[in-house]
Amino acid sequence: MGRLPPAVRLLGIGWYFALCIVVGIVGGVLLDRQVEKDHIFTLLGLFLGLILAFLGGYFMLVEELNLRRPRQGDDR
Fold first, then answer.
1. Rounded distance between C-alpha atoms, residue 64 and residue 20, angstroms
2. Mind listing the pLDDT tens digit for each residue in 13-65?
């Protein structure tokens, strides 16, 4: 099986962003309810989700851009 088309890979990066942020927020809300704090863990989960989304998305996007760049010595 070959590589997925670029549109599908970019869609996967978008889902990764959304999933990281939503999981961070939901986890923070659940922890806030467990320890009865006022949105401390929700904000912490949001920031951690944003950081993970940014770093993971950055590395996936760099990999995607490197795949699209012609290699040296390639005649296209």
1. 19
2. 899 999 999 999 999 999 999 998 889 999 999 999 999 999 999 998 888 88
Q: Which residue has the tokens 């959304």?
A: 18
Q: What is the pTM of this model?
A: 0.77
Residues 29, 35, 40, 41, Cα dihedral to 10°: -50
For 56, residues 6+ apart whose C-beta sits below 8 A from its C-beta are: 16, 20
Residue 11's Cα: distance from chain center in Å?
A: 11
* 50/53 Cα distance (integer angstroms): 5
Alpha helices by DSSP H, 1-76? 6-35, 40-68
Rounded CA gap, 15 and 19, in Å? 6
